[in-house]
Amino acid sequence: MTTDETEGSLVDFYRDLHAHPELSMREHRTSARLAERLRAAGFETTEGIGGTGVAGVLRNGDGPTVMLRADMDALPIAEETGLPYASTVPDVMHACGHDLHVTGLAGAAAQLARARDGWSGTLLAVGQPGEETAEGALAMLRDGLFQRYGEPDVILGQHVGPAPAGTLGHRSGLFMSAALDAEIRIFGQGGHGSMPENCVDPVVTAAYLVTRLQTVVSREIGAREPVVVTVGRMRAGTRANVIPDQAVLTLNLRARDLHVRDRVLAAVRRIAEAECAASGCPRPPEITTSGDFPALHNDPGLVGRVRVAHHAVFGTEAVLEYEPLLASEDFPHFGAGGIRYAYWFVGATPQPVWDAAPGDRPEEKLRGVPGNHTARFAPDPSTVRTVVTAMTTAAHACLG
Ligand SMILES: [Zn+2]
Ligand SMILES: [Zn+2]
């Protein structure tokens, strides 16, 4: 098989995944396609780990165990890219590029298997479900991923994003933030819209709460500490002349470390309880949390080694140093036991799209290019080659 044939078939593989996105923890088709590829490459492959997770192992003599991880899930977004291989599933889209991560893993696994005379050790290829909901990594770990295959010595992961296609983004140490979702259920007392004096209106309480919660960021946390409190959803009521019984707010909280994140959550609880008391709610609000994303801390030594390997293949000018991000990943769960990991970004924006965006500085350009989680996120097709090469070279650098 020539390199061209391999690359062509990988582009087809990517387009097929892109056209058939699946929501978190329901990645049945995607994981089956990945498992097929891993088996064909000679990996001993198991499906159904932690739900729809898949893992393949290739043992090749003495040396470290290197785990390569790709997340597989898509998002509830209606695609508007107009691409010939756009989603065929209504209101579901690979808008975060996880289809590229799966392609990168499949391609790297095949390349490393073919080149096994040049390295020794064990490769563990992992297709993870449910990254967007922070469920998948924990589900695979709880289902005995490391008991079945042994703990890896190092873990490698990558993510595509808005930056010129062909560039990579590295960062030593803290790279991505801790995040958590919180739901606040406000209990009012419903009634006829004409008689608010006989009711406790939870809509008004919710409205106060939404604006007041922004003071957590501006008045309670130091200006040097990046924190985000987003109320992504408000739900209450059915029609204009009915005061509802309840209102529900759904929040996303982000901070660089768990300590700060927990301070933010404590402030949210305190304000929610006090605001409900101020409104005369018949009972305190119910506050629940979900979607636990730990902060991502890249191992400096490992990142150094991967960076050198990427420099050699992509050139130093293509490998950029990133600042810490307020985005989050559930990838760090795999390293919770002290396993070293390295995680990098891969630019996916077509160069003409990047050039056409207004502004000169990257921060300005980012406002003008379709990013992750948007309906027009359309990675450049050349990114297939980049993710495969980036993962293959990084793995090579870590194997014996
Ligand atoms: Zn995402
Ligand atoms: Zn993602």
H and E order: HHEEEHEHHEEEEEHEEEHEEHEEHHH
Count of separate DSSP helical elements = 11
Number of strands: 16
- Output the strand order for the largest sheet: 1-2-4-3-5-16-6-15
Mean pLDDT equals 96
- Give a quick account of the main beta sheet: strands, pairing sense, barrel closure: 8 strands, mixed
Task: Give the N-to-C terminal Cα separation.
Answer: 26 Å
Q: What class do helices, strands and sheet pairing give? A: alpha/beta
- Broad CATH class of the largest domain: Alpha Beta
Instruction: Give the second-level CATH assignment, the architecture of the largest domain.
Output: 3-Layer(aba) Sandwich
Descriptive terms for the model:
alpha/beta; Alpha-Beta Plaits; eight-stranded mixed β-sheet; four-stranded antiparallel β-sheet; 16 strands
Would you kindly provide a written description of the structure presented here, covering whatever features stand out?
This protein has helices at residues 3-19, 28-40, 98-114, 136-142, 145-149, 202-220, 258-279, 300-314, 351-356, 362-368, 383-398, and strands at residues 44-49, 53-60, 65-71, 121-128, 154-164, 168-170, 173-176, 178-187, 191-192, 227-236, 242-243, 246-255, 286-293, 296-298, 319-321, 340-349. The chain has 400 residues and is an alpha/beta fold. It folds into 2 domains: 3-176 and 295-398, Aminopeptidase; 178-293, Alpha-Beta Plaits (2-Layer Sandwich), CATH 3.30.70. The strands form 4 sheets. The protein has an 8-stranded mixed β-sheet, sandwiched between helices. Helix 1 runs antiparallel to helix 3, helix 6 (202-220) runs antiparallel to helix 7 (258-279) and helix 8 packs across helix 11 (383-398). The longest helix is centred in the C-terminal third of the chain and has 22 residues, at 258-279. It starts with a helix and ends with a helix. The mean pLDDT is 96. Residues 96, 132, 372-373 line the site of one zinc ion (ZN).
